Amino acid sequence: MRVIREFDPWKSPLCTCPKKYSFNPYTGCAHGCLYCYATYIPSFFKLREKRNLFRNLERDLQELPANALISMSNSSDPYPPVEKAREITRKCLEIMKDYDIRVMVVTKSDIVVRDLRLLSEMRSAVSITITGLDEFEPNAPPTEKRIEALKAVKDAGIPAVLRLDPVIPGVNDSKLDIIEKAMPDHVVTSTLKLKADSLARMAKKLPWLKRIEFERKGAYRYFPEEVRRRVLFKIKSFCEEIGVGVGFCREGFEFPSKSCDGSHLIDHVK
């Protein structure tokens, strides 16, 4: 079974990511975020370990092109609570280090701080999702712990990316102090995008979502373009004022940075 796959299996025309690969050390996710889009994976909120993971990872790494970029993880968080004891993600990083590939770690967890010394010895960046929406992310570390973790990433000399995603107009679009507190090297941001199941979960907390006239883009429901533009360009202006790069994720709007995800900050010269 392949454990490293080409990123963006949906081939979304709105995706502006550079060529990269996706790797999830775990199947499913324990954080239980109400807005999660990855529930196309069966029993997604039940975390599972992968059989023969390390052997399959070694095999897939041998077949990657030189200078490949791996994003870990875009579906299942690589640092669930059990990672403290299991150290599966850490072992995967140790294997990747031997292949000198580029790695973008994407997580909501402060457990990543444990591995900063290892990551500093690799061509890596760390992207931490911080939304200020703790009540919608019941099993993830609280906002302040994630801010401190991102500051530790930057202090370790590793490119630090803040993923301000999702942004919900009228709910957390004014929480720009998160950016100023963390002072990352790059911000990637995106508005809330809902599928049928995530809309049902989110509407239990925010009933007014059922009254929104969303724009349909494939399986997703987007806020109207004028709403998304207003929210995202406010964030963009704030980032530019404090000297932080910014990119948008699957929005269809232009942004000033060299990449949406901040991967341009990783050294790409062998």
Number of strands: 12
The assigned structural class equals: alpha/beta
Instruction: State the major sheet.
Output: 8 strands, mixed
Distance between the ends: 29 Å
How are strands sequenced across the largest beta sheet? 1-2-5-6-7-8-9-12
Give the helix tally: 8
How confident is the prediction overall: mean pLDDT?
95
Named at the architecture level, the CATH assignment is: Alpha-Beta Horseshoe
* Rg estimate, integer Å: 18 Å
What is the overall shape? globular
Please write the CATH class name: Alpha Beta
Residue windows where pLDDT falls under 50 for at least 5 positions: none
SSE pattern, N- to C-terminal:
EEEEHEHHEHEHEHEHEEHE
CATH topology: pyruvate-formate lyase- activating enzyme
- Beta-strand percent range: 15-25%
Range of helix content: 25-40%
Number of domains: 1
GO molecular function, one term: lyase activity
Domain Radical SAM core: 24-180
Protein name: DNA repair photolyase
Pfam families: Radical_SAM
Keyword list:
globular; pyruvate-formate lyase- activating enzyme; two-stranded antiparallel sheet; 19% strand; single chain; alpha/beta; 8-stranded mixed beta sheet; 270 residues
How would you sum up this structure, described in words?
With 270 residues, this protein is of the alpha/beta class. It has a single domain, classed as pyruvate-formate lyase- activating enzyme. Helix content is 28%, strand content 19%. It has eight helices and twelve strands. The protein has helices spanning 53-63, 83-86, 88-97, 116-120, 143-155, 177-182, 196-203, 225-242, and strands spanning 4-6, 21-23, 26-27, 48-49, 69-72, 102-107, 123-129, 160-167, 186-191, 215-217, 220-222, 245-248. The strands form three sheets. An eight-stranded mixed beta sheet has the order 1-2-5-6-7-8-9-12. It has a two-stranded antiparallel sheet with strand order 3-4. Strand 6 (102-107), helix 4 and strand 7 form a beta-alpha-beta unit. Helix 1 (53-63) packs parallel to helix 3. It starts with a strand and ends in a 22-residue tail after the last strand. This is DNA repair photolyase. Pfam families: Radical_SAM. Keywords: Iron, Iron-sulfur, Lyase, Metal-binding. One of its GO terms (molecular function) is iron-sulfur cluster binding. Residues 24-180 form the Radical SAM core domain.
